[in-house]
Amino acid sequence: MLEWRRRREPSKAMLYLSPLIAIGLTMLTGMLVFGAIGYDGLRAVTAIFITPLIEPQRWADLGVKAAPLIMIALGLAIGFRANVWNIGAEGQYVMGAIAGTGVALLTHDMTGWWILPAMALAGILGGAAYAAVPALLKVRLQVSEILTSLMLTYVAVQFLYYLVRGPWKDPDGFNFPQTKMFSGSQTLPAVAEGSLVHVGVPLAILLALIAWFVLSKTVAGYAVRVVGRAPAAARHGGFDANRVTWAVLLTGGGLAGLAGLLEAAGPFGQLTPQFPVGYGFTAIIVAFLGRLSPVGIVFGALVLAVTYVGGEIAQSTVRLPSAATGMFQALLLFFLLATDVLVRWRLAWKARPAKVAP
Amino acid sequence: MSTIITRRTLLAGAAATSVLPLTGARAQAPFGVGFVYVGPVGDHGWTWTHDQGRKAVEAAYGNKVKTSFIENVAEGPDAARAIRQLAQAGDKLIFTTSFGFMNPTIQVAKQFPKVFFEHATGYQRAENVATYNARFYEGRAVIGTIAGHMSKSGQAGYIASFPIPEVVMGINAFHLAAKKVNPNFKTKVIWASTWYDPAKEADAAKALIDQGCDIITQHTDSAAALQAAEQRGVYAFGQASDMKAFAPKAHLSAIVDDWSGYYVKRVKEAMDGSWKSGDVWGGIKDGMVKLAPYNDAVSPAARAAADELQKGIVSGTIHPFTGELKDQKGTLRLKAGETATDEVLSKMDWYVDGVQA
User: How many CA atoms lie within 13 A of A289 on its CB side?
Assistant: First the structure.
């Protein structure tokens, strides 16, 4: 008989293996489930998980889809490590886009290299300011940031709806709820002529490297980890938990805001009511899939991007329903949480009960 | 003399042998036709009617075509990716069936100059991008006529999505037709701010019924409002497809979209090389807009009036927007006897008197 045994120490190997096991189990389960309801299960799973990786023309799509997930997940992971649970990155993402778009609309008739950096700065500040609300409530009044950040997401989305239908509505847009299209000086340049990949994609990788450096090589990164893992020890060590709360929420909000602005000034080129697509929530899966480590997050974001892009391939080739994408993402999170048990526990054969001496 | 085989000739030879079977396959390869849908296909409503059109294409050309679709595509950059994916997969004609796919369609069309694109309900065209739409306002006028006859309270509730010209002209067409029957008719509008949200649509229907409306009509896609009407014992109309199954008693009729004829025709043109960009706006006459069979509850007078209006629209003797027409503020929009041009219709942002929007 098998039984669970607690490990003396969390397994390092399992920490990194469990996401791979989860991905494997997701593919296997998906194959069986879709096979059982009459699809070609193997082709479905291949279309979703393999095709996007082996077709070079899909790589640009993967990068564009992964970039905002990487940026948001980095900010979330820094917070999660410090035990600060910012669930409202989606709202900060929207607010960053709104702040940056405000700059875009003010500078619509101007040209110049400074416009995009100004929009990006506004995006960072917008997202950070929006994350300051849960930070203030948490530090001053001990209100759970899980609730406040989540609920503020809906406020941000309604604010966006108000702006694109009211004061920011494109006067030449036939009354459609959308802002003007951004001008050339306000749109992200592509990394190469004619490529879909905008400069936000390499920027996301660069930010991941910076985050890795800060978290593992600086005192600030150490403070975040200590406050998260051992609050009492942190107090003795002279680390101020409130300051860490402020810092991680502002960083997380700023990164989400920057991601929002880059999405608005990149693929969208304007704000519309369809702007919030749930990156802020998907990034939570990405952060955990990447083990809250910046390098892991880059891979985690890639896996999620593969499921989005592959989900569409599976629709047009295997005729899988669109809900399949969501199902695979949910399976992934489910198996990830389940296989995490292996980090602290291991399976072992049950020792035979000792024979009772006659 | 020995032949020196260089790497180049070897490569060329390899290329030639590998090309041969490919071209052979290409000659027989079915013509790829792709569709991008904004909602799930489901079994009723907007996207379902487009999918019926896709099936009509398959039925018409059998093995000569291969259709594929991507459903539930968000309006925005995700749409560009979905459209691009179909083009890269080899589809030669791609239908994008929601207004919000306009910019992405134009953008992808630039990258694939040899692929033809058809965008529903938009206003931007290109050499390889055509637009098409249906004159739903003609159907709105017919159901408005029925509503004028069948409403006891003289008040209809209208669940609308977004105040874009398409929706505004539908509201006006419905109201003008109902007012012709009952000069005191009122049309109350609730903006659901969505194309598809059953819970919101049902809430809007209930609120309108509470305000005294005994006819419900909608410019949103679910059958929830019809179900609410059925429960509360008032009348309603289906949207985009026959929705009688959801509300056998309440469902008076429905505006039915039929894209089959257009899709079959355009696929043929794309296959034989005669496809050209353009803008098609078809109505009842072209078979793009149809009315679902009337409910038994529809009175003989209402039937007669509705049929007469349909005949008049088909023969061209009646236009749902005929002056003299004033908007809510009293501004003269159409002079006596004047009919609205397509340009006036496609930019409509005013409501006729008696609409409470």
Answer: 28
* Angstrom distance (rounded) from CA A69 to CA A89: 11
- pLDDT above 80 for A61: yes
Q: How would you classify the pairing of strands B31-36 and B93-96?
A: parallel
Of B82, B99, B162, which is closest to A312 when you measure between CB atoms?
Answer: B82
Domain annotation covers residue B18: no
Whether B76 sits inside 8 A of A317 (CB atoms) is no
B65: in domain: yes
User: Measured between CA atoms, how close is B297 to chain A, in angstroms?
Assistant: 38
| Residues of A at the B interface, defined by Cβ within 8 angstroms | 57, 61, 64-65, 161, 174-177, 181, 263, 267-269, 272-275, 277, 308-309, 312-313, 315-317, 319, 321-323
The segments of chain B whose pLDDT lies below 70 read 1-28
Tokens 């004159």 locate to B135
Is there a single domain that holds both residue B168 and residue B314? yes
Tell me the β-bridge partners of B257.
B289
Tokens at A244, concatenated: 């860490």
Q: Which domain holds residue B183?
A: 137-256+290-356
Neighbours of A215 (CB within 10 A): 20
**CB contact (8 A) between residue A176 and residue B74:** no
- Tell me what the mean pLDDT of segment A75-103 comes to: 96
Please state the pTM of the whole predicted model. Answer: 0.79
**DSSP result, A188-216:** PPBSSTT-S-BTHHHHHHHHHHHHHHHHH
Q: Say what the ipTM of the complex is.
A: 0.70
Total domains in chain B come to: 2
The answer to whether residues B147 and B208 touch, using CB atoms and an 8 Å cutoff, is: no
Identify the pLDDT of residue B163. Answer: 85
At A301-353, the pLDDT tens digits run: 999 999 999 988 888 888 888 888 888 988 988 998 888 888 888 888 876 66
B96: tokens are 């994008």
Distance in Å, alpha carbon of B93 to nearest chain A alpha carbon: 14
Interface probe with A: pick from B37, B54, B67, B71, most Cβ of A within 10 Å: B71
Host H or E run for residue B215 = strand B215-218
Residues B80 and B181 both lie in one domain = no
